[in-house]
Amino acid sequence: MVRNRETVSNLDQLLSLRLLFEFDQMSFCLAELHVWSFRNSLQVPDADIGTYQLYEKGEPASSTDQHYYNEKQQFADSRGYPWFLSNRRPEKLRDALKELEELLQSCPVMSVRWRSKQCCQLLLRSGVLVTLFLGGAQVERVAIDRTLVGRLPADTISDAVIGDRFLLFSLMERSQVCQVYLNRKNQSSPELARHMEKLTATEIKVSVVDLPGGGRCMERRVGLNRTQDVAVCWWPLCNEEVRPWSPVPSAVDRANLVLLACSDTPGLTVLSSIRTDGNPIDCRFSLTQPYHVLTVELHQEAKHSTSELYEEAQPPEVQTCVYECAHRCLQRLSSSPLPLTSKPIICCRDPLERWVLLGLQDCSVVLFDPQTGNSQWASCSMVPAVLAWHPSGALLMVGGGQGEVQCFDMGLSPLPLQLVSEEPTPGSIGPSLQLSRHIKTSQGLEGMHWAYCPISHGYDGLEAHDLLLLWFHGGPLAALRLRLGVFNGTQLGPGDLVQHRLRCEEVGAALGILGNMDWAMMGAECYRSLSSITDHLLRKPLDQQTEDPSQTLSYWSTETPSADTPADSSITCSDTRGLKKPSCWL
């Protein structure tokens, strides 16, 4: 009996060592979670050195099972992470952050804009403008401006956009779009630049325009182009059923996409309005073509009530469309269809606007190229609710409604996320990062946004964008900071991910990244990645696992297929015996 127990113990140790070896060989990304909240209900474990929150001075451990409260405080202080916040004038940071927490409990975030990597502005549904000044992943100053409260035509905001010279709102109760123009007295004043978060230093001018399509109360979305002279407002399609006693609606009343002109003197004006063929899921201006509107529309054939009980529902289909704003009108230029297996929920585009990422109801994501019609599919561990594409285009973040965050590379291969821990174990890495295991929130994840400003005011080519802003329903705000020490030079580009995949012997994932890189936009980086993968394969023994990707990369073909286990194990891919070289090869 004792010998059997010893045998079982030895087997458990061998299994643990094997799992730890596989853990060391797999690729993953380390991160830290910084929660900007004083709530005791978050219940952050004191042994969790990857999650941090804020505490009141003199506050003891929240529960008796926290035995490492003081040790974790010393650990955070040694790394420059604040444990307590000061309340010195004039910032009064502690009171301002508590006030922001109270606002988030009743007012959701409608718009987020990063003025720089250290300055983030949030616009709440009540019209409150919040400006956060950060130092790394820590809040250094919070400015709350209530100037717009009570000065808008309606109390409830459906959507909003923060611009350089004005704010744009769509109103819930009314079929209107409101523009709040900020006529700053002196644009070049350094004092104004230091107090850019305050609207009281400006002369506010409010302009309102009525939208076509009737006065229905619905969620209307707004978007602004890069030059900030044209805006678009769109909403879902309405039921076209005509009653015998109701008049036939006109083309203007049936419209669901409106083009607006934004200026100072006349204010907002309606340029054009059309009705889309499908139900729009996403609508935005192109970053490269400021007068092109990119939409993703859902097409699904409607069924009659008599046949609906006997026929199965048709699979949904989406179309990615491009509209051009020419001669004060919207004209559709192109459309690319994509059949789906489930209804799409959320959509986003990559920074180069080549790929469209769709989150589906069946817990999957689809990566679609409208130009070629190619699509890739991957399964998620949750229903996608929030999507965020890294500014470099190399990482895709998928968030679930219950606080799950899953990471993919641009080849749609999973890249597990793990918070920093003292002794990582194989079971700590799963398909998704469960934030509910680290903080206790009453509601789920509402949105996430990378700390990145598209229009940079300086050279930041070597700057690492490693901060992801998270906000939950009812608060709090948090920052997920990636620890990029495992990557080359703390960068997070496609080439860096290829190198990381190769170090972990994940050649298939590296090939997936290379296959989705754009040679026209990043030719030098593509060639370096191609050379790295080829060099990695040529150093391996020649077998089926190395032969297939080698043929894919270098266009070599074998006269006779190689066996899974070559007779001469010393033969490598660098040997050219039994290989023929075509006329064109890389």
What is the mean predicted local confidence, pLDDT?
A: 81
Task: Identify the CATH architecture of the domain at 147-237 and 251-293 and 316-339.
Answer: 7 Propeller
Give the biggest sheet.
Answer: 6 strands, mixed
Determine and state the CATH class of the domain at 147-237 and 251-293 and 316-339. Answer: Mainly Beta
Helix percentage:
10-25%
Pfam families: Frtz
Subcellular location: Cell membrane; Cytoplasm, Cytoskeleton, Cilium axoneme
Protein name: WD repeat-containing and planar cell polarity effector protein fritz homolog isoform X3
Keywords: Cell membrane, Cell projection, Cilium, Cilium biogenesis/degradation, Cytoplasm, Cytoskeleton, Membrane, Repeat, WD repeat
What features would you highlight for this structure?
586 residues; alpha+beta; Methylamine Dehydrogenase, Chain H; 6-stranded mixed beta sheet; 4-stranded antiparallel beta sheet; 18% helix; 33% strand; disordered N terminus; disordered C terminus
Please sum up the structure shown:
This protein is of the alpha+beta class and 586 residues long. It is 18% helix and 33% strand.
Tell me about this structure:
Residues 543-574 have a biased composition (Polar residues). It is found in: Cell membrane; Cytoplasm, Cytoskeleton, Cilium axoneme. One of its GO terms (cellular component) is plasma membrane. The structure is a single chain. This protein is α+β, with helices and mostly antiparallel strands and 586 residues long. Helix 6 (494-503) runs antiparallel to helix 7 and helix 6 (494-503) runs parallel beside helix 8. 31% of the residues are buried. Mean pLDDT is 81; it is low at 1-24, 186-194, 302-311, 457-461 and 555-586.
